[in-house]
Amino acid sequence: MLQSSTSMEAAAQWAPPPRPGSMPELLLRIARERSEAAFRELFDEFGPRVRSYMRRQGVDAATADELAQETLLTVWRKAALYSATKGTPASWIFTIARNLRIDRIRREVGWQELTDDDADTIPSEDQAPDETVSAVQRQARVQAVLAELPPEQREVVVLAFIDGLSHAEIAQRLSLPLGTVKSRMRLAYQKVRSALEDLQ
Amino acid sequence: MTASLHHHPDGATLMAYAAGTLGEALSAVVAAHLGTCRTCRREVRLLASLGGGLLESLGGEALPAPDQSPALPGDAPPVTAAVDASDRMPAIIQRRYGLKLGDVPWKSMGPGLAFHWLPLTEGIPGELRLIKVAAGRSIPEHAHGGSELTFVIQGGFHDITGSYSPGDVQDVDGDVAHTPVADPEGCICLVAAEAPAEFKGLLGRLVQPFTRR
User: Fold this and answer.
1) Where are the alpha helices (DSSP H) in chain A?
2) Under a CB-based contact definition with an 8 Å cutoff, are residues B53 and B68 in contact?
């Protein structure tokens, strides 16, 4: 909970954050028991992070508060849709925050769905019995990949995922050709894919 | 169908989609492809975990509790059209636009070529179109101000970049000029562009005036 407020601007100096190891369990307790105590913990843990994310999109503090609160309330309402086999709680909360950002800040229609297994006829995978453990391991693996990304690749990834910049906007911000931004993205994508694909 | 897919969105495109920065038109085509491609669905999920990992690394002051109690009733179900699974139109397009493949009000753009524009949020750059090309016909050679993504709904086409079948996505940069030719059974595609296409040549100049809304 004592999270350093170090800015991600210094993407080159990456230090893995202290990891809230109990997050998958919290989310499952919210889903299964509707535990308000678990929600309170999750809110305290992720509220500040989601607000920082919203602030990075360029909205004022009051709007960022509102959007962060709405993100966390959506977590409460839709916790039953969370499946530990589909990713970490953080990645699920990220997708909720991202979809809200597309809808409210960019005011576009978002095509990204919260769950992808109702969109087609392919059955979803069975829930693994050790889902909590696997979600914790997943978090550690994701942090390891981020730590291993070369700084110039991490920089474009952070600008896209956290600052919400398009490839063209990143190129402008960094005074780089668009093709360079895309090739750095592609390299980062390949690294992430090869490092994490066995998790799926 | 998944096993026969050969063409997927570029890695940089999937990254932008997962980050939520791809834009409305291009995202629609990626979403249509994800409906048929389990591999890309998994990868988009992996990339969301990247966003989650970055979110974990952010700090900040405590967020004040909302005025509302969390014990509210759930969201009202989103208003979306029913999906007919037997229709070839991607489910996500059916849901958003309530449009089946047989019901598309095609607008003829010349012999063997018809378009139908799908509306985007007002003021959003780019365009989203359904394109129907008759057997052996081509879409006039064109280049783009930005990326173009093409999802094959039915039939197929080929051009200098390869051959495309249902479920495939062609992901081309703005500087690639190409002339897609429809396969013998014709072709129906969902096409998104960051900027309207610029057509070349005589036929292209004839088509051009009609392609601007």
Assistant:
1) 23-33, 36-56, 61-78, 89-100, 131-148, 151-161, 167-174, 178-196
2) no
Q: How far is it, in rounded angstroms, from Cα A72 to Cα A67?
A: 9
Query: Judged by CB atoms within 8 Å, which residues 169-188 of B form the interface with A?
Result: 173
CA A9 to CA A83: how far, in whole Å? 32
**A2 contacts chain B (CB < 8 A):** no
Is the Cβ of A53 closer than 8 Å to some Cβ of chain B? Answer: yes
Beta pairing, strands B127-133 & B113-118: antiparallel
> Which of B133, B132, B121 is CA-nearest to residue B96?
B121
Q: Is B46 part of the contact surface with chain A (CB cutoff 8 Å)? A: yes
CB A96 within 8 A of CB A114: yes
The H or E element spanning position B127 is strand B127-133
Which pTM does this prediction carry? 0.85
Q: Of residues B49 and B196, which shows the higher confidence score?
A: B49
As a whole number of angstroms, the distance between CA A33 and CA B71 comes to 12
**B51 touches B21 (CB < 8 A):** no
Whether B207 shows a pLDDT value over 80: the answer reads no
Tell me if chain B has a CB within 8 Å of the CB of A36.
yes
Confidence of residue B128 (pLDDT cuts 50, 70, 90): very high
Q: What is the pLDDT of residues A95-122, one digit of tens each?
A: 999 999 998 888 887 787 765 544 333 3
* Residues A75 and A30: beta-carbon distance below 8 Å: yes
Phi, psi of A31 (to 5 degrees): -70, -45
Contact A162 B55 (CB under 8 A): yes
Q: How far is CA B87 from the centre of its chain?
A: 17
Q: Which helix (H) or strand (E) holds B188?
A: strand B181-193
Give the distance from residue B76's alpha carbon to the nearest chain A alpha carbon, in angstroms: 11
β-bridge pairing B127-133 and B181-193? antiparallel
ipTM of the complex: 0.84
Distance of CA A200 to the CA centre of its chain: 17
- Which of B15, B27, B172 lies closest to A193 in space, CA to CA? B15
